[in-house]
Specification:
Layout lengths: L3 E16 L9 H9 L3 H9 L31 H10 L7 E6 L6 H14 L4 E6 L2 H5 L7 E7 L6 H8 L4 H4 L6 H12 L3 H18 L3 E14 L22
Parallel strand pairs: 2-3, 2-4
Antiparallel strand pairs: 1-4, 1-5
Helix pairs in contact: 1-3, 8-9
Length: 254
């Protein structure tokens, strides 16, 4: 409309899905690996986001480059249905149902994304069943069998301790709620939290990505989040790359 504009940008937050390894099916990392290779992330970005966001290089943010902690050459698991089927065969997966506890659009495009992923999993032989929930208490309810759930991850500071250690380390929500644990990751988390040797920390972070996204998947990254702000052009205000809106004086007449 005349005089109006929409500002859009990716923000410092990634959409992810998290696995619960207390589930006897997901206890096998081969099944989780198959789930990560079944998803066409770029297809989701094009279909639901009109290409207005990106698939990040795993649980990393470009801001990590400012502290020389970015792992170059890393990427989210490739979309490879043939590999997914091979992994499921190796795992001797028999089609047991995997519950997917889901909130209705807590996140933008959440339910549509879940429905697409369930169909992608179905294409490789995975039987994932959506269970609609009303709140986070129901998502985390220890009663019953868990499987997959949605989450997001932010970089509170320009260092990979956020979000990987904060969310998936020994004191993070994923382990505290008994979704997943890994002894080596816990040891590496201590290095990330205490070491002042940048090379050692970079090596530890790279190894954590290998474990959490390939060998013993704790989660899978889906895409970077994005926000869209409609406003009057005359305001001369700049939307921030975050959920928060910056109304400080310096951000006017941007």
């Amino acid at each position: 409309a005349p005089g109006l504009e929409v500002q859009s940008s990716t923000i410092w937050n990634h959409r992810i899905s998290t696995f619960n390894t207390q589930n006897p099916v997901l206890a096998n990392p081969l099944v989780r690996r198959a789930m990560t290779h079944s998803i066409d992330r770029q297809g989701i970005v094009e279909a639901l986001w009109a290409g207005q966001t990106v698939v990040p290089a795993g649980l990393q943010f470009d801001s990590f480059k400012t502290s020389n902690m970015y792992v170059e050459g890393w990427a989210a698991p490739e979309f490879n249905p043939e590999l997914a089927r091979k992994l499921l065969k190796e795992a001797n997966y028999k089609g047991d149902a995997i519950p997917y506890r889901l909130l209705n659009y807590y996140y933008t495009n959440q339910t549509a994304t879940a429905q697409i992923m369930v169909e992608m999993w179905k294409q490789v032989g995975l039987n994932v069943e959506i269970q609609m929930k009303e709140n986070w208490a129901q998502i985390h309810d220890p009663a019953g069998v868990k499987g997959v759930r949605d989450w997001s991850a932010s970089n509170s500071i320009n260092d990979p301790i956020t979000p990987l250690v904060v969310q998936f380390g020994p004191n993070g929500e994923a382990q505290q709620k008994k979704d997943w644990t890994n002894e080596e990751v816990n040891k590496l988390s201590v290095i990330m939290e205490t070491s002042t040797d940048r090379a050692q920390r970079h090596k530890a972070f790279a190894r954590m990505l290998e474990i959490c996204e390939r060998e013993d998947p704790a989660y899978q990254v889906l895409h970077q989040n994005a926000v869209f702000t409609g406003m009057k052009k005359s305001l001369k205000w700049k939307a921030a790359p975050a959920f928060a809106m910056d109304f400080r004086t310096a951000n006017w007449n941007a």
